Structures are given as structure tokens and as C-alpha cells.
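Run log, item B.
One chain of 371 residues. Sequence copied directly from the ordering sheet:
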Amino acid sequence: SAPTPRAAGGSVFLADGSDVRLEVTSPDVAPVLGDEVSVMGQVRPLPQERERTYLARGVSGVVSGSSTVVTVVRHSTGVAAWGAAWRESFIDYSRRRLSPSDSAVATALAFDVRTDLSPEARTALEQSGTVHILAASGLHLLALAWFLELLLSRLPIPLLVRRTFILGLLIVYSAASGFHPGTFRALVTTALRDGAVVIGREYDALSGVSAAGVMYLLWRPNMVYDAGFQLSMVLGAGIALFRSRSVGVAPFPRLLRGSVVAWFVSIPIVAHLFGIVSLVSIPANLMAAALLPICLLGLLASHAASFVSVPASDVLLVPATLAAHGLEVVVSGFGTFRWWGFALPAFSGYWLAAIYGAALALWRPKARPVT
């Protein structure tokens, strides 16, 4: 798996051997997704309180402790290495140029590195229903794609060349975020939609989400038990099925409808996974969605400009920092609000099949025009 940096240094990652999968806590080495590593240490049994989660992901033991030695035998190449270099450079930049709290938000938002987030911030994210905001998700990748298209469409570049360049950069960004299920889904659906535009065909959103899910599980079968994958697929399918198809709808009503749809379709699985139902998710997500592109694009642009001009980087950092403060206010304000929502007792996951099966009965298929 893509290593998760530790606040004290090193990283935590899953490593596959010839017949075993282990969770390794490295005290001083953070390998790249795809690296071949040698691990020396003591394999311990799975923690009892998380045994079910570990077994679901195929993990049979954990290796941790100060005596653990991780050595990179063969370095990964290609997009995984490029993405890791981008992520590490950005983390170093944000920690040097931003305050600790702003840096924690920046690294979590841009590349899904939530190591520096406080426990209070994590709780507020869950209770406000904005977990996907501070995690590299499909929303982030689509914001980046929209911005690149907005810039490059002003230049005399052929459509195919422009879309190919954007898709290549999105692949590297997805790799930099560890191929999070959300970014992978958005990457595949974007590629399919662009392909449909180029060859003059109609894009089908539900087929795109389904193709992304199948491809991801062919690559990482055990991720079917991962909360990020489950939420990503449910949200993607729900928005594809129940999104507004009206032509000419203003951005805010479209965003409001999308937020309401996302809230409704996510209630059952969020209640099952986290045991909570957030009642403030819709206003919190509307406000966060307005700030997210400013923060994300400003941070990435400021980091890129820092290699050319420090003053230009500082200028771009101002709106990004203000947007980051705004996101913190939204998350903490709604997440700690007295009437944020309510907790639910644990229930069987088999209820989800019945609930989502009933929801599908509300969907009306779109009739394709006859030509």
C-alpha cells in the first residue's frame, strides 16, 4: 500500500510477500508504492480489537518496534515514483512555509496525508460529514481537471493533445495520493468521458463508476472491505443515478442537489461504518465545496511557483491560506455544533443490501434518443 507517514518519522504500510501480507511500521524509512523492500523484525499477532479489520484486508501479522529495519531493495519507477516525489516535495514545502495547523490541513487536503491532524479535527470531520474534504478524493481530482481545462482551452492546443496532457497529470496526482479509491474512480470516469467526447459518443456515468470499481478490485481485491472504497463507490453510483440532468441549471442549485443526493445515499453506509448520522452535512459540504478549489489549487500553484519565483509563490499562498482557515472554521464549527447529529447502535451490514436495493427502485432510467 502507499505508506502513511508517521508524525515521529518513518511510515506505516502493507507489504505483500510470496504468501503473506503484513502491516509494517518502519521507524525511519518511508518507501514508495511499488518498492521492493526487505523487512527485518518481529512478527506479532494481530491486535484483538482490530483483528476483524486486519483479516478482511488479508493482513496476517504486524511488524513494529524500534528494532524493525526496512531496506529498499529495488526502487519503484514510473508514475508511482513521480507521484511520491511530488507528494514529499509538497509536504516539505507546506511544513516550511505554513503554521503546523495550516500545514496539517494542506497535506491532508492535497495528498491525503492526515498524519498531523489532531484527534479533535478527525472527530469534527466525521461529525460534520466532511471527511472527504480533507482527503484526496474524486472532488479534488475533478477540481484540478477543471482548472487545467480552463487554462489550456485558452491556448491553441488540439483537443486530443489537451485532454491527453491533463489525463497524464491526473494519473500522476492520483499516484501521489496513493491511488485513493476516490481519485482512482474519478480518474477512470474522466478518461472514459474524454474518450466518449473524442470519438463522438455519449458518456454513461453509471457505467463509468462501475468500470472504475471493477478495475480497482481486480488490482486490489481486499479493498472491497475498505471504508474509503465503499463510500467512494456508493457516492459515485448515487450521484450518477440521481444527479440533475436538466440543461442550463445554475451552478448553486446543481451543487445543492448534488449535496442532498450525496447526503441521502451515504446515510446508511456512514451509519454502518461510523455509527453516526450527521444532520449538518449538507450546509457544511456546500460551504466546504466552495472553499476547496481555492485552497487546493492555490496550494498546488504556490508549490509549483516556488521553484521559479518565491514572491509569486507567496502571493498565491495568501488566498489558499485564507481558504484553509475557512475550511477549518467550517469543519470545527459544524463538527462541534451541539445538534450536529446523532449516534446509532451497530447493525449488520446485510441491511445495506436491502436499503440500497429499495433505493434503486426510485431511480428512473434515462431514455437514449433514437437516431
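Observations after the first pass:
- The chain has a mean pLDDT of 86.
- Strands lie at 4-5, 11-16, 21-26, 36-40, 43-44, 61-63, 69-74, 276-278, 341-343.
Flagged for discussion on Thursday.
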